[in-house]
Amino acid sequence: MVKHNNVIPNGHFKKHWQNYVKTWFNQPARKTRRRIARQKKAVKIFPRPTAGPLRPLVHGQTLKYNMKVRAGRGFSLEELKCSVAAGIPKKLAPTIGISVDHRRKNRSLESLQANVQRLKTYKAKLVVFPRRARKSKAGDSAAEELATATQVQGQYMPVVLEKPTVELVKITAEMKSFKAYNKLRVERTNERHVGVRQKRAAEAEKEDKK
After folding, report:
1. Cα distance between residue 21 and residue 171, in whole Å
2. Does residue 139 surpass a pLDDT of 70?
3. pLDDT at 9 (0 to 100)
4. Could you give the C-alpha distances from 184 to 172, 188, 189, 191, in angstroms and in order?
5. Strand, coil or helix: what is 202?
6. 51 close to 155: Cβ distance less than 8 angstroms
7. Once rounded to an integer, what is the mean pLDDT over residues 141-161?
8. CB under 8 Å to 152, separation ≥6 — which residues?
9. Is 75 exposed, middle or buried (0-12, 13-18, 19+ CB in 10 A)?
10. What does the pLDDT read at residue 12?
């Protein structure tokens, strides 16, 4: 006989856990398959860089991430215009490995200058192959450059974050004697009484004029 107000035992122990285990035995084969696919793609897109077109440097969205610099979708039309003397036409840019985003707008001069410099560096190192081997057009690279050109493997001009530098100074006697708490209290009092003191000074000046 069951005594007291207890839970009725209904333990479900035969759950057949073997049927719900997910295995991953195909991981090494997938790794090999991905590597072979990368090699085939590199051969197919030769002489273009394997990492794809050049991307701009942009800042992350929102207050939480806006200090982080990352690779963006594409260069703005203003950046393409300012990059060289005559500018890079927006229809030519994708054909020479430069990604374009017509929706982006430059909100600051610093980001505009950084991306223009990035484009100038890229343009200086760029080797343009002719569409037909025997017919070269204006803008194509010289035969000597074509002979020595190699395909860029991996990230080209990656985003490099600058590490902040810390300046070390010797602690002086003046620093040791400085009382930060007292200074904060005094400045807080001065801020609180600034209006009253200005009023008193104005009244005193009026009396002096009389």
Report:
1. 62
2. no
3. 84
4. 21, 6, 9, 11
5. helix
6. yes
7. 83
8. 49, 50, 51
9. buried
10. 86
